[in-house]
Design brief:
Elements (H helix, E strand, L loop, with lengths): L7 E3 L6 H4 L6 E5 L2 E4 H7 L6 H28 L4 H28 L6 H10 L10 E10 L5 H9 L3 H14 E5 L6 E2 H5 L18 E5 L3 E11 L7 H34 L7
Antiparallel strand pairs: 1-2, 2-3, 4-5, 4-6, 4-8, 7-8
Length: 280
């Protein structure tokens, strides 16, 4: 610990008595009339430390606290900036922190975060123009196989079939032999994300915009089988299934804003009603 040529009083720290000795003085350090209490140390030192580690940590906390108070005193004595302006900013900052903490607690207790499918669909229909695609999206069946995988021609036939039994055969085959596969026909993929799986250059991406045809790609290690089921171009209306999470979050955020506005209005009106607000 550093020793200061100021009016500083630091009480000695006992590694064992910091927490357990009821006769321990309440004040652990003081400087320029400000005091650091043992309760402050207790809040800063985690439980479970042994006596030596507790004492070392306590010494560091006290040293940091003393340094801070000395700097504050020096600033108060020598700063040319208007201290009243600093106090005003500190009070404003404190007010903002209090308001934020209260709003957070109020929202946690009162915000309805359940959004049903009807609300999502209604919001989508009312705001379709806001949901423009920023990239091409597509629905695909996709299989990545080792070049020596068995029955590749059969896998191609299953991939192109709409027969439910063939789709089941394809899924079983993929679980046994595919390095990677995607058979979810309900969800959309962004083209740029899908291209990361394929040995295609940017100029070849147009090959994927051919629905209903088998696309067969290969590199020295793997064979890629692709069937594009559907696609939508950039700037088209984004499908609802792709926007559900965004819409849900938007609805909840709008509820949050409305809830806070209503709370603030109620508090203001209550203060007016009780003659707590006076404007001179």
């Amino acid at each position: 610990m550093r020793f200061w040529l100021f009016h500083i009083l630091v009480f000695a720290i006992s590694s064992c008595s910091l927490f357990s000795n009821e006769e321990e003085p309440e004040v652990k350090a003081s400087v320029y009339g400000k005091e650091l209490y043992i309760s402050d140390l207790n809040r800063s030192i985690p439980n479970g430390l042994d006596s030596l580690d507790s004492a070392v940590m306590a010494e560091g906390i006290i040293d940091a606290w003393l340094t801070k108070q000395v700097l504050v005193k020096q600033a108060e004595n020598n700063l040319t900036t208007d201290l009243e302006e600093i106090d005003r900013k500190l009070e404003e900052y404190r007010s903002d922190l209090l308001i934020y903490a209260y709003q957070k607690e109020f929202i946690n207790q009162n915000l309805d975060t359940v959004v049903n499918e009807e609300e999502i669909s209604a919001y989508y229909e009312e705001n379709r123009a806001d949901f423009l695609l920023k990239d091409i999206i597509l629905k695909v069946r996709y299989i990545k196989l080792d070049t020596n995988a068995p029955s590749i021609l059969k896998a191609e036939q299953w991939l192109m079939s709409n027969n439910p039994e063939d789709v089941e055969e394809l899924e079983d085959y993929c679980y046994q032999y595919a390095v990677n596969f995607y058979l979810d026909e309900q969800n959309w993929l962004y083209l740029d994300d899908f291209l990361k799986e394929l040995p295609l250059t940017g100029s070849q991406r147009s090959q994927l915009l051919k629905t209903g045809k088998l696309i067969r790609l290969a590199d020295p290690l793997y064979i890629y089988l692709i069937r594009v089921l559907d696609y939508k171009l950039k700037d088209a209306i984004s499908p609802l299934s792709l926007e559900k999470d965004n819409i849900r979050n938007t609805i909840i955020n709008e509820r949050r804003i409305q809830l806070l506005e209503e709370m603030e209005a109620d508090l203001y009106n209550n203060a007016l009603r009780d003659n707590e607000i006076k404007i001179y």
